[in-house]
Amino acid sequence: MTSPSPVGVWWATSDGAVAARITEPDVASTSVVLLVPALGYESSSSYRTLRAAAEALAAQGHLAVRVELPGTGDAGGATGPEHLETLIGSLVESIDLFRAAGAERVSIVGLRAGATVALLAAARRDVDGLVLWATAGGKRHRRELSLMGVRVPEEEAATAPTGSVVIGGWLFPTPLLDDLAAVDLTATTVSPGAAVLVLDREDRPAQDALAEALRSGGATVTSVQVGQHDRFLDRPSEDSEIGVETVDALAGWFADQLPATSSPQRLVVPGSASTEILWYASDHDGTVIEDFVHLGVHDLAAVLTHGVTPSRDVVLLLNTGSDPHSGPGRAWVEYSRNLALAGQDVARLDFRGWGDSPHLESATGRPYDLHHGDDTLSAAAALRARGYARVVLAGLCAGAWVALDVARHSPVDAVLALNAQLYWARGDAIEALMSTTRERRLPEIAEIRRRAEAGEWDAEDERGDRPPAARWLDVLTERGVPVSLVFAEGDDGVEYLQDRLGRRIADLRSRGLLRIREVAGIDHSMSRVWLRPAMLDVLAGEIAALLAARD
Q1: Do both 327 and 282 map to the same domain?
Q2: What is residue 310's predicted lDDT score, i.e. its pLDDT?
Q3: How many folded domains does the chain comprise?
Q4: 48 Cβ partners below 8 Å, 6+ apart?
Q5: What's the rounded Cα separation, in Å, for the pair 68 and 76?
Q6: 183: Cβ–Cβ under 8 A, 6 or more apart, which residues?
Q7: Where do the DSSP E strands lie in 324-448?
Q8: Which residue segment(s) compose the domain that 27 sits in?
């Protein structure tokens, strides 16, 4: 199955730029459905399910708009909006924009905490339809987030207010947690006569009190419990699937209750494919420009970040894990904008089957898919065609592996590989957590270390008998590709290089052919957001060194 990339646009609200992906119907329509994602890590694991919902609605004739509100996804604002009002107000202004553009019918679909935002926005503006999908809000949700999250250290008060938590690299500031806890969903009413679907998980208690409260306010409420939520809400993004049953239930309800309205001409979507974003860096502030672009023969979705004057070179950030182009915990967004402030252009990419790029045969991407190398080369060629002299490939974990694999086969300007696991080979297991991988590899790790201490690996290297990872590095250095390997201190990837390839690594480094750097404190997926400014300094330094090596 193939599917084109949706159209990306931004529009301005009082609290910053909203980023949106538009899936247009084949026919002209004045029926708009705004889809509000879950917050935090759940937004990554459910990304493709929400896109599938948008495509199902567009197939019925609705203009489907997935909105990312300030502090989330590609939108403006720092990761983790400080207050719930930022999200609610931006959604209300978005409703107004589409009404002003001629939308006769506006509905909202909200997932998890996005459902809370949708409900509170619908309490302020008349909407025709409202879907509250596995709604999360109130004191129970705050407790859940606090239990799941890692508390930001008190000494990092400059990063986030005391009591803030991080889940999978996504920051939930204390004021936002407090706002979520203060929400009483059953005390909120919407327009009398509005059609409401309360779409719950079948493996959890139904939210009957919420449904009854909305009915008592005059809404026409349908309550449904559906399976498969565990496939995209309870799994890491690497293992998530599309919740087909839930998408079908949502689409079926729209077909019955809110069929699309037609129009003689298409509604003019507000916004632009390019926007200026005010960004606050640790050392200075400024404006960056972001463009939604499609790259290469595969129509790959990407976001290009640059200053007023584009740089000569560009860094191409590849997908990591199975996160969309925003990166782990939105790190790619933060790094792109900070680097652009310093004069370095950056493109963050979705492989086919990931994020907003075409589906291909399957609807969800997996780390190390065979086509990733082809996608990388296609995107790099498209960036050169845009006028960039050099393209630096950059990725984390599986993305780093792909970048190095591409560089040993094809012309590449430089590679910045973060936490590359060069012991991995096709056919090996793929785990979402490095802790799981390490547990599985413990006997292998112990045997590698024992033989390293006995000098066996060095002796093999001296004889020219080298494992695949060493041969990779030899090919890269022979091709003259500048490579920087950056690791979290003690990461499994650097441990493997030190124990298994000690002699080879020492030789390449002594000759200036390979850069290896460990960063203290940072974790494998860079989820400790308070350390990102330090990591950014490392990245900027390594990029500069790689480009200098090409001069």
Answers
A1: yes
A2: 86
A3: 2
A4: 232, 240, 242, 355, 363, 364
A5: 9
A6: 84, 116, 120, 137, 138
A7: 345-349, 390-396, 414-418
A8: 8-136+194-257
